[in-house]
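@channel sequence for tomorrow's demo:
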Amino acid sequence: MIALALATAVVLVVLIGPLLLGIAGWRHVRAAPSAVAPPAWDWTRVIVSALIYTLAFNLTFFVQELFLVLPKALTPGLQPTLFHNNHRWNGDNPLAGLFQGTGALATALVGLACLWAVRHLPPRSVKSRLFGIWMAYCGLLMALPQVVIGALSTGSDVGMAMEYLHLAATTKAAAALLALAAMPLVALRLVRPLLETAREPLQIGDPVARTRFVV
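structure tokens (generated this afternoon):
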């Protein structure tokens, strides 16, 4: 029953919610089309953003793998291997299960720090702002889905940590629902910093232009 409820929530957040938002925006555009011609695509900005995203994703992945292994490496009786495909380790210690969740925790903390920075600190440049945005995006949206997976799979990284903490099924489900609710909130909190990277007001002059710029 809990698995069905979580699956329904995932569909609502990942598919139905964005679809309804897109339909609402499309209807708004048809009702009040823009009288201003949209500016040409800024392909240089698109390519730079894509490269920065690639860097942010790989850095976030490295942080997760490093902090998945580092606590075990400092724990007596455990000998982990960095970047092992199955996250295996040699030796035994009761804390090993708990430390399976430290990778996701580290990426979430990095994401939160970057989200705060792009919301509150003045940007030094457009590239630094894009780097902060993509680090926040990757850090949080790489960690939050793992909470949902952990609630459904005891063999996943976060699932092992939940098992160590002896969380009840209802507690896991509540954590998963909170993680799902946080995902669109993270995305919405990144919209304003992203729009602030526009080169000229025309690029974000109306809802159509803003949607086009974000895409």
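heads up for whoever presents: The CA atoms of residues 32 and 208 lie 10 Å apart.
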